[in-house]
Amino acid sequence: MSDLFNVTNGVRQGGILSPYLFNVYLDDLSTELNSIRVGCIMGEMIINHILYADDLVLISPSTRGLDTLIKCCEKYGIEHNIIFNVNKCAVMHFKSDSIAKFKVPDFILNGETIELVTEFKYLGHILTSNMKDDKDIERQRRKLFIQGNTLIRKFYMCTFEVKIELFRSYCSAMYTPHLWTKYSVTAIRKLYTAYHNSLKILI
């Protein structure tokens, strides 16, 4: 282990080493969270957090459990001189339509109340409190519409083969569709319509 040294620069946004440095730096926090026997039971494991670089998600089936996890992070931040930005934090209560309304208490981090939301984009995927995927499908439909229009404007003079290859590369590849499990027929039909219309106009 090296001698102590002062940190004068943060990690670069999008840098190759950044995720690795975050994982090393926050590994102790992950260990501490794992030691708290609070979370969702999956098989023989208790899962209470998901960590990807500097994105941390705390998971608990109870408000008391979530409060315990937040206090663990707050304590870790004080001990390691880490400031968690409350403005970038959010609390979401997942519920089905059949469950009666539940008053979610305030959660405090560093003396500030964390915002309660019904919709949140995590790693590009839109999550909603009712666990439906229509909002994320709409995100994909809009993205497809923009990409399709770009191809139509810039490559209308290309050959049929080139157009098909471009469409497959830029419009057929979709982000997180394998996570769509609860959606309306209307939402998926709109996506299909956007897909077929973009292809039809392009060729």
Automatic annotation (TrEMBL):
PROSITE patterns linked to this entry: RT_POL (PS50878)
Domain Reverse transcriptase: 1-127
GO terms of biological process kind: DNA biosynthetic process
Membrane spanning residue stretches: none
InterPro entries (UniProt xref): DNA/RNA_pol_sf, RT_dom
Pfam (any one): RVT_1
Signal peptide: none
PANTHER family listed in its UniProt record: REVERSE TRANSCRIPTASE DOMAIN-CONTAINING PROTEIN (PTHR47027), REVERSE TRANSCRIPTASE-LIKE PROTEIN WITH RNA-DIRECTED DNA POLYMERASE DOMAIN (PTHR47027:SF20)
Protein name as annotated: Reverse transcriptase domain-containing protein
Species of provenance: Meganyctiphanes norvegica
